[in-house]
Amino acid sequence: MKLNFGLLTLLAAFIAVPSLAQEGMVQVQSQYSVPITTERLIVAAKARGLNVIGRVNHAEGAQKAGLALRPTELVIFGNPKVGTPMMVCNQTAGIDLPQKALIWEDAEGKVWLGYNNPTYMAERHHIEDCGMSVKKVEKALVSLAKLATQPSAQ
Predict the structure, then answer these.
(1) 139 within 8 A of 54, measured Cβ to Cβ
(2) Closest by alpha carbon to 26, among 127, 121, 125, 93?
(3) What is the CATH architecture of 18-149?
(4) What is the predicted pLDDT for the residue at 153?
(5) What's the mean pLDDT when you consider all of the chain?
(6) 8 A C-beta contact, residue 101 and residue 27
(7) Which sequence spans correspond to the domains of the chain?
(8) Strand-strand pairing, 111-116 and 99-105
(9) Tens-digit pLDDT profile for residues 31-86
């Protein structure tokens, strides 16, 4: 049996890497509803010692304004030990800090979790050369997203 390695590689990359649908934003499909994904993210963030600063239910706000919006929530979280050095390097990074994750249901009923790509943020604010470990932040966000969106392996 002959394998098409190009097709196999493309398929593996598509499955293994979260989709990048918006410039600078990583999007991961969730196996859970918006409220459950949001709760799982909050629990995972707190378990890792992050401060959960807020939770915004955009759909609830829309409803109060007499408007309709599919389930959409925002979680704001961070760690001043990581965020402050970024702002010391360039204070404009503060517009993107603390970290945020948006959880929403799309028109097809799929639930997504999205967050700012740390590499994009570092480039945007010119903080690549400030001794920051962007890869470490990226690894932490990937881990949080996985914990929030995927069943844990037993």
Answers:
(1) no
(2) 121
(3) 2-Layer Sandwich (3.30)
(4) 59
(5) 87
(6) no
(7) 18-149
(8) antiparallel
(9) 999 999 999 999 999 999 999 999 999 999 999 999 999 999 999 999 999 899 99
